[in-house]
Design goal:
The complex is a heterodimer of chains A (about 260) and B (about 150). With about 260 residues, chain A is an all-alpha fold. Chain A has one domain. Helix content of chain A is about 85%, strand content about 0%. Chain A is elongated and about 70 Å long. Chain B has about 150 residues and is an alpha/beta fold. Chain B has two domains: about 30 residues; about 110 residues, no CATH class. Helix content of chain B is about 25%, strand content about 35%. Chain B has two helices and eight strands, in the order H-E-E-E-E-E-E-E-E-H. In chain B, strands 7-1-4-3-2-6-5-8 form an eight-stranded mixed β-sheet, with no helix packed on it. In chain B, strand 3 and strand 4 form a beta hairpin. The chains are: A mainly alpha (about 260), B alpha/beta (about 150). Chains A and B meet through helix 3, helix 7, helix 8 and helix 9 of A and helix 1 of B.
Chain lengths: ~260, ~150
């Protein structure tokens, strides 16, 4: 096999996977209607995807906010602008760190679990036995997990940012002695609801769709062996992280580029 | 775990997420103090707006009364046309009010300061502010100082 044939084969392989992924997304979206009639399926997945990720998100948000408090203070105090600490903490959390770090943690905490679960269902032929019983696995397994991811991520990102702002307050005001009133008033003066907070929410919604899509697709598309499932789980984390960071760059350019 | 417990924890999770979003909206952003729409718009022409940006504050005696809503260049007058929305609560501005562009702090953002005049008529939606004072451009100021120095 010559080098060109190898290149062509791998390029076609990538295209084929992309195509399968989009067809998979389409079938998942078409299967979404069942969830209106059976919301119990969604609630159960919201629990395992959202509620169980809550602790790691809240703790990470607190620490990221506290680190921002320290680093922001150290930089700002040289310019005599320590009062702008609230602005620095809130803008970095709401615009970037909240959506991005939440999505990365989500991929590690919930995305990998989704892939492993669905991949194992496939490897142990649970999905095919569902089909034998005329139960559509898209409706019963894929759609609730996908939608749970899409709903959870924006909520988790909002919690991350809110806890982070509180962490920055704790370090900035409580430990380093920035004025509490200045912390909040400078923050409110420069954080805009539509420009900053809504754009952050839109970002986390996009990341939610991408992270959930990659996680369930990798599980559904996994080679049905123990090695295949382990590779699919790794791919979920790696691909989600790369997709999130690249998309974040594009979204930031679109949202905040035209200054 | 029973379905009931799961449903309750999911309910708490969703409520927490929405509460966090609400806290961000009210406590972190400017949504609490400013609601768009419920105001009237006036405009003014400036020779030079310096670094003024859309959404910059409009103040009266130091108190924020509105925001800059649009900045365009008027090709016929060779001037910048700045529109700003003033909150409907402050509808007592005389027609001869003066608008000046100032800078908050040494490196701070630029804002519009309004100074009231003495007319009985008040500004309404779509009116123009006639008396304006342009932004102070540092290079111009230095140039003027240098001319003064060399003149002596």
């Amino acid at each position: 096999m010559g080098p060109f044939q190898r290149l062509g084969r791998s390029a076609l392989g990538v295209l084929e996977r992309l195509g399968r992924g989009h067809l998979f997304l389409l079938r998942t979206l078409l299967a979404m209607g069942t969830l209106v009639r059976r919301p119990g399926l969604l609630v159960r997945e919201l629990y395992s995807v959202g509620v169980l990720s809550l602790l790691i998100i809240a703790v990470s948000g607190l620490f990221v906010g506290m680190v921002l408090g320290y680093q922001g203070y150290i930089t700002l105090v040289d310019f005599g602008a320590a009062e702008a600490l609230g602005t620095v903490v809130a803008l970095s959390l709401v615009r970037e760190l909240g959506p991005v770090v939440t999505a990365l943690l989500f991929a590690g905490r919930a995305g990998s679990a989704l892939t492993a679960e669905i991949g194992l269902m496939k490897a142990t032929e649970q999905l095919s036995s569902m089909e034998m019983m005329a139960v559509d696995p898209y409706k019963r397994v894929i759609a609730p997990r996908f939608l749970a991811g899409v709903i959870s991520l924006p909520l988790l990102a909002a919690i991350f940012s809110a806890v982070g702002v509180a962490g920055g307050y704790f370090i900035g005001v409580g430990v380093l002695g920035v004025d509490a009133g200045a912390y909040w008033s400078q923050m409110q003066a420069s954080v805009d609801f539509h420009e900053d907070i809504m754009n952050g929410v839109i970002k986390s919604m996009v990341f939610g769709v991408v992270a959930a899509w990659i996680a369930v697709f990798e599980g559904y598309d996994a080679t049905p062996t123990s090695e295949g499932v382990s590779r699919a789980t790794t791919r979920t984390v790696v691909h989600t992280a790369l997709a999130i960071l690249a998309l974040d760059f594009i979204l930031t350019g679109l949202m905040f580029g035209d200054i | 775990m029973t379905t009931r417990r799961i449903e309750i924890t999911v309910g708490i999770f969703v409520a927490l997420g929405l509460a966090a979003l609400f806290m961000l909206a009210i406590q972190v952003s400017n949504l609490g103090e400013y609601r768009g729409g419920d105001g009237y718009e006036v405009h003014a022409y400036f020779n030079n707006i310096g670094g003024l940006k859309v959404r910059a504050p409009v103040t009266m005696a130091g108190v924020r009364v509105g925001r800059v809503s649009a900045i365009t260049y008027d090709a016929e007058r060779y001037q910048a046309r700045v529109s700003f929305t003033i909150s409907a609560r402050y509808d007592q501005l005389p027609t001869d009010t003066q608008a000046s562009i100032y800078t908050a702090g040494l490196l701070g953002e630029q804002y519009i300061a309004l100074e009231p005049g003495g007319e009985d008529e008040v500004l309404r939606d779509g009116d123009a502010i006639l008396f304006t004072q342009s932004a102070l451009v540092l290079e111009e100021l230095i140039g003027r100082v240098l001319v003064n120095l060399t003149g002596n």
